[in-house]
Design goal:
The chain folds into 2 domains: about 120 residues, Alpha-Beta Plaits (2-Layer Sandwich), CATH 3.30.70; about 70 residues, no CATH class. It is about 45% helix and about 15% strand. It is built from 5 helices and 6 strands. The protein has a 6-stranded antiparallel beta sheet, with helices on one face.
């Protein structure tokens, strides 16, 4: 999972990458960076974790749910309207005084249209809001450990005057490796 939180800052040194073995250390690192005012970060986890999402988005719910609701309403309306118009357009004598547009038989089509369009709107929202496919990400996010069993933070657009502070925050949060920021020497404390 990669999440980007944009901020306006000038890029002056290479991105800083921190590798974590434990989720609680990652959460401490994200919290430390946010408290220090650094927001242009990418967080990588091998699997989705609600703790990371809550910390990055500060408790704000995802707007994807509104896309799903709008897609469901659109789908229900379109499916019912389509079925009603097709039924009304077919010249047929309805026996027994039954209504031409009847709700009970149309419920199945309406339900299926709701599910279809809600899922399509949700998929479109995920592509749009997650900025997929991800292009223009720093090469540091491609560390294969992040898709296996490690967690990571990559801080972009780091000013030369902030690099030491960012590295210190990441190293003190329990990162097993901190690299980048103008020098490739690994820092970090082994946290077990």
């Amino acid at each position: 999972m990669s999440v980007s939180v944009p901020v306006e800052a000038a890029a002056t040194v290479a991105p800083i990458k921190a590798v974590y073995k434990h989720l609680d250390c990652l959460v401490t690192g994200i919290d430390g960076l946010k408290r220090a005012g650094f927001r242009d970060i990418h967080v990588m986890t091998p699997f989705p974790r609600h703790e990371v999402e809550e910390l990055i988005y500060e408790g704000e719910p995802s707007p994807v749910r509104w896309f799903t609701l709008m897609g469901g309403l659109f789908g229900a309306t379109m499916a019912f309207t389509m079925t009603a118009l097709m039924s009304a357009n077919w010249p047929m004598i309805m026996p027994g005084g039954k209504p031409l547009v009847s709700i009970p038989p149309f419920i199945i089509i309406t339900f299926e249209g709701t599910i279809l369009w809600a899922s399509m709107f949700t998929f479109a929202a995920l592509l749009l809001l997650c900025r997929l496919p991800a292009r223009g990400l720093p090469k540091e996010v491609e560390d294969p450990r992040f898709s296996n069993d490690h967690f990571g933070i990559v801080v972009e657009r780091v000013g030369a005057h902030n690099a030491a502070q960012i590295k210190s925050i990441l190293a003190h949060s329990g990162a097993i490796e901190v690299t980048g920021g103008g020098e490739d020497a690994a820092h970090g404390a082994h946290h077990g």
